[in-house]
Amino acid sequence: MPASVTTENLGTPEMSNDVRRVVTAFFAEESQDWTVSVLGSQSSNAWHVRVSNGQQIWTQDLHAVQHSAMAVLESLKFVAWQAKSNLTSHQTDYR
User: Can you give the pTM of this predicted structure?
Assistant: First the structure.
């Protein structure tokens, strides 16, 4: 089932498109409804990644050196592992 993806303030339209493409491809085969938002901030260098499967919410802040679709993909892999392991909501802040 495709994920619902929101991106804002990621620098360029190309970066937003890359992030949406990676997220959509990652969740293409999932049976749950997933919601993903990747929000950049004009006041800081962080991207706030929020992922929900309707039952749990995971958040992670990605900082300047992690601003890429591949960094978002690594976050999604971790979230998917947690969801499949039935782990509780998790918040990380990698710098």
Answer: 0.81
3-state secondary structure of 4: strand
Number of structural domains (the chain) is 1
How many helices and strands, by DSSP H and E, does the chain display? 2, 5
Residues near 41 by beta carbon (within 8 Å), at least 6 away in sequence: 9, 47, 48
Amino acid at 30: E
The string of pLDDT tens digits covering residues 29-66 is 888 889 999 999 878 888 999 999 888 899 988 887 77
CATH number where 9 lies? 3.30.160.100
Which range marks the domain in which residue 34 is found? 4-94
